From TrEMBL:
One of its GO terms (biological process) is cellular respiration. InterPro entries: Asp_de-COase-like_dom_sf, MopB_CT_YdeP, MoPterin_dinucl-bd_dom, Mopterin_OxRdtase, Mopterin_OxRdtse_a_bac, Prok_molybdopt-oxidoreductase, YdeP_MopB. Residues 110-409 form the Molybdopterin oxidoreductase domain. The lineage of its organism: Bacteria, Pseudomonadati, Pseudomonadota, Alphaproteobacteria, Hyphomicrobiales. Residues 645-752 form the Molybdopterin dinucleotide-binding domain. It comes from the Bacteria. This is Formate dehydrogenase alpha subunit. One of its GO terms (molecular function) is molybdenum ion binding. Belongs to the prokaryotic molybdopterin-containing oxidoreductase family. GO terms for cellular component: membrane; oxidoreductase complex. Its cofactor is [4Fe-4S] cluster; Mo-bis(molybdopterin guanine dinucleotide). Keywords: 4Fe-4S, Iron, Iron-sulfur, Metal-binding, Molybdenum, Oxidoreductase.
């Protein structure tokens, strides 16, 4: 890849010509320049396909330029002309492949043929689809208990694939659905229902055009949802106040040059985005939000003393909420000195942000992984909800809570039944429709699935997309457990680490991507997806498949189901794969919210799945929206040592989760390398470290196990004290499996206590 390992601070705005150039480079690297541009023109358009990148919403799928740099890269990555064929597998043992880095693995290109691991030659060898399905069936049917199998989903799977998958696993007999969202927005799915009765956001895209104030907590839109920059830029230009709360001064949160704006591009001008960036300490959000709420309370009391208009929305609080007294008591018991110490932000600065929030008639609170991936992720989410409720900023135009989802259909997958804790209503609906009795007991999430693997209880792992072995925490322990499985099955488009961390028997089943024509007995098929704003729309691929041996995800799931369940199945798998409109009819039958599904996806832009909270109907135990108290400021009593730093593991600008588009991170000024640690000058001085020194990062473990990554390069950076940052997934070995939010089980990958030790190791070859 030939990019020199340098550190060169980036002084431009985010976006701009750099973004166009990077997208062009990605297309050229994948040898798809001309065809790629034609394909991109069909992205997020009526009759086209849905961007396989992030879960951000599209403006009714009607703008002529609805893609971004990183969406472009995601498409180029899928469309690549490179092929990872049986001949490639023939010439490399799995041990040899294991020496390649994650970038090199995926650069081998699209998988073309189903492959089965052969232990004698330590190679993957071609296998027929029928043999592959029979092998899955034989392993699953040999298990004494269906709960010894795990059915993992990554959030790119369509509604149709996900629905069939959960139906298959439930008819087989388990609710074991570890899901990428367990490592992602689970704190939202668990936290928000307690607060507002629904585990999803409450805003629509059009609300961004009406908001006076937008707060962004722990989310990096310029990299991870660049189409959101259009909304932020427009909001900024019409005078809305945007404020960000993030340990990094992420460039796109500062200023953005819109590649869609001819004027900005021609004049090299840009739009400032955040009027203030608050460099909150890693893990300091509860303190910060409590500080903001303290300001609101104080201002409200003052206003009432003066008999002027209240600051809190008392009509809303009295009519719609419960728990305000306990919240007020908690805030009064929270001292400013603790707030300042834990958040790293002064009271005066917090007051400025609070003023902006109070002044705004309509405010949107946006958040991402900086909020959810903590031991106190659920509490973080609920404090954001409290802040919204205090001013009635839920269920009103231009206002609301906006968790920005990750994968393009992670939200849809959950809506159509990928859940390890199914409701009674879902189980009853399945039983009524199909006449089999689905398992009632809760199944495994990612953490409990890994724990079961470590205990040796799990025998079979099936992954519908994703790169489980790389995305999970605590590799030393967890990857070893995966190697002990009887069978691992991966439905995938590209070769990745999970295929090499395999069980005794192992299959790689190559599938079609979103950009490709999905031809079934009734003709070409469309699938459907749901975005972060709960809009459901169709996605249709137009490119020829990467290989004639590929199958669609629904067809692969149906194949496994038939081979496993045989004649005892109550589902007509064949008929469902012949025509996906039939799958949508089934979804509608099980989930009444999808009423009129097949007709409604023909509307341009699709349709909105109504959210009760948006209508101010609260599906909580109290029938109200709940203010929820978080005791204290989420300090960790286990970690008091002075030299401990809180490590947050983040994405570079050039990766899609475990997929690396390159080893560079343009906006943070890092080129050709990923084994770096961002550290403030003060923390460096405290440790006698200089720029470019190499350090081992060692977790302060509670179980006596050594967790370390070696020889990371120190990069001085404007970063809050007490914390440091490095890239995911290279630092996943540092995240202990036990370190997760007790409520949502989200691994605490944005808050790992670590120590730095001067390295004696030489840097790993990248
Ligand atoms: N191009 C691209 N797009 C993507 C992805 C990708 O990898 N690449 N991934 C997709 C997925 S699955 C997801 S979930 C989303 C992820 O998108 P984001 O939510 O943006 O994820 P991250 O980059 O991991 O971290 C978000 C931000 O949190 C900040 N942060 C870290 N710790 C803290 C903290 O303690 N408090 C606060 N307030 N902030 C903190 C980081 O500095 C970073 O700016 O994007 C999706 N879209
Ligand atoms: N330390 C740390 N760990 C984290 C995170 C973090 O911020 N820090 N983030 C977490 C988050 S938010 C998430 S969502 C998870 C991500 O976990 P996953 O969703 O499991 O991982 P991805 O890297 O998105 O998966 C990439 C693989 O998906 C396959 N793929 C791509 N497109 C398709 C398709 O259309 N169909 C199929 N079947 N396969 C396809 C390709 O083979 C590719 O190699 O990681 C989590 N882990
Ligand atoms: Mo995610």
């Amino acid at each position: 890849m030939g990019v020199a390992k340098t550190i060169r601070p980036y002084h431009q705005p985010a976006g701009g010509w750099g973004a166009l150039k990077a997208m062009g480079t990605a297309l050229v690297e994948q040898h798809v320049a001309v065809h790629g541009m034609a394909t991109l023109a069909r992205m997020n358009q009526p009759g086209g396909f849905d961007c396989p990148g992030c879960g951000w919403a599209d403006p009714k799928h009607t703008s002529p330029f609805e893609y971004c740099e990183n969406g472009g890269k995601a498409v180029a990555w899928e469309m690549t002309t490179r092929r990872c064929t049986p001949a490639f597998f023939e010439s490399h043992t799995v041990s040899e492949l294991s020496a390649l880095n994650d970038y090199e693995l995926e650069m081998e290109g699209r998988l073309t043929h189903p492959m089965r691991y052969d232990a004698i030659s330590d190679r993957y060898l071609p296998v027929s689809w029928d043999e592959a399905f029979a092998l899955v069936g034989a392993h699953l049917n040999a298990l004494p208990d269906p709960n010894m199998a795990e059915f993992y989903t990554s959030g790119r799977a369509s509604n149709e694939a996900a629905f069939l998958y959960q139906l298959f696993a439930r008819e087989y007999g388990t609710n074991n659905f570890p899901d990428c969202s367990n490592m992602c927005h689970e704190a939202t799915s668990v936290g928000l229902p307690q607060s507002i009765g629904v585990g999803k956001g409450t805003v629509l895209l059009e609300d961004f055009a009406r908001a006076d104030c937008i707060f962004i907590f722990g989310q990096n839109p310029g990299t991870n949802s660049p189409r959101m920059m259009t909304e932020l830029r427009n909001a900024s230009r019409r005078g809305a106040t945007i404020m960000s709360f993030n340990p990094f001064r992420e460039r796109a949160l500062e200023r953005f040059q819109a590649p869609q704006s001819p004027v900005e591009m021609a004049t090299l001008s840009s739009t400032p985005i955040s009027s203030r960036l608050y460099q909150v300490k890693v893990g300091g959000d509860v303190a910060l939000i409590k500080g903001l709420m303290k300001c609101l309370l104080a201002a409200d009391e003052e206003a009432r003393a003066r008999e002027s208009a209240p600051v809190l929305d008392w009509d809303f609080i009295k009519g719609h909420t419960a728990g305000i007294e306990a919240l007020v008591a908690d805030l009064n018991a929270t001292s400013w000195s603790d707030v300042e110490r834990k958040s790293g932000i002064s009271r005066t600065e917090i007051e400025i942000a609070a003023q902006a929030y109070m002044k705004a008639e309509r405010a949107i609170l946006v958040y991402g992984m900086g909020i959810t991936q903590h031991r106190h992720g659920t509490q973080n989410v609920q404090q954001i909800a409290n802040l919204a409720l205090l001013r009635g900023n839920v269920g009103r135009e231009g206002a609301g809570i906006c968790p920005v989802r990750g994968h393009s259909n992670v939200q849809g997958d959950r809506t159509v039944g990928i859940t390890e804790t199914p409701s009674r209503a879902l189980l009853d609906a399945i039983e009524a429709r199909y006449g089999f009795s689905p398992p009632k007991a809760d199944g495994h999430n990612v953490v409990t699935a890994l724990e079961a693997m470590v205990r040796g209880e799990t025998k079979v792992f099936i992954g519908l997309g994703g790169n489980f072995a790389a995305a999970i925490p605590d590799w030393q322990l967890t990857q070893q457990a995966m190697r002990g499985l009887d069978l691992t099955v991966h439905i995938a488009t590209k070769l990745n680490r999970s295929h090499l961390v395999h069980g005794r028997d192992a299959l790689i089943l190559p599938c079609l991507g979103r950009t490709e024509i999905d031809m079934q007995a009734s003709g070409p098929q469309s699938v459907t997806v749901e975005d972060s704003m709960s809009m459901v729309h169709a996605s249709t691929g137009h490119n020829l498949p990467a290989s004639e041996n590929l199958k669609s995800e629904p067809a692969i799931i149906a194949g496994m189901a038939r081979a496993t369940l045989g004649h005892r199945s109550k589902v007509n798998w064949e008929a469902l794969t012949e025509d996906y409109a039939r799958i949508r009819e089934e979804i509608e039958a099980v989930f009444p919210i999808f009423q009129g599904y097949n007709a409604r996806i023909r509307e341009p832009g699709g349709f909105h799945l109504t959210s009760l909270a948006r209508e101010r109907i609260w599906a909580t135990a109290t029938g109200k929206a709940n203010f929820l108290v978080c005791d204290g400021l989420c300090e960790d009593p286990q970690v008091s040592e002075k030299d401990v730093l809180w490590l947050t593991t983040v994405r570079s600008h050039d990766q899609y989760n475990t997929t690396l588009y390159s080893l560079s991170d343009r906006y943070r000024g890092v080129y050709g390398q990923r084994d770096v640690i961002f550290l403030s000058q003060a923390e460096m001085d405290r440790r006698g470290l200089k720029a470019d020194d190499r350090v081992d990062i060692v977790t302060v473990s509670q179980d006596g196990v050594e967790r370390a990554v070696r020889a990371f390069r120190v990069v001085p950076y404007a970063f809050p004290e007490g914390g440091c940052a490095a890239y995911y997934p290279e630092t996943n070995p540092l995240v202990p499996l036990y370190a997760h939010d007790p409520q949502s089980f989200t691994p605490a990958s944005k808050g790992v206590p670590v120590r730095l030790v001067k390295s004696t190791a030489t840097p790993a070859v990248q």
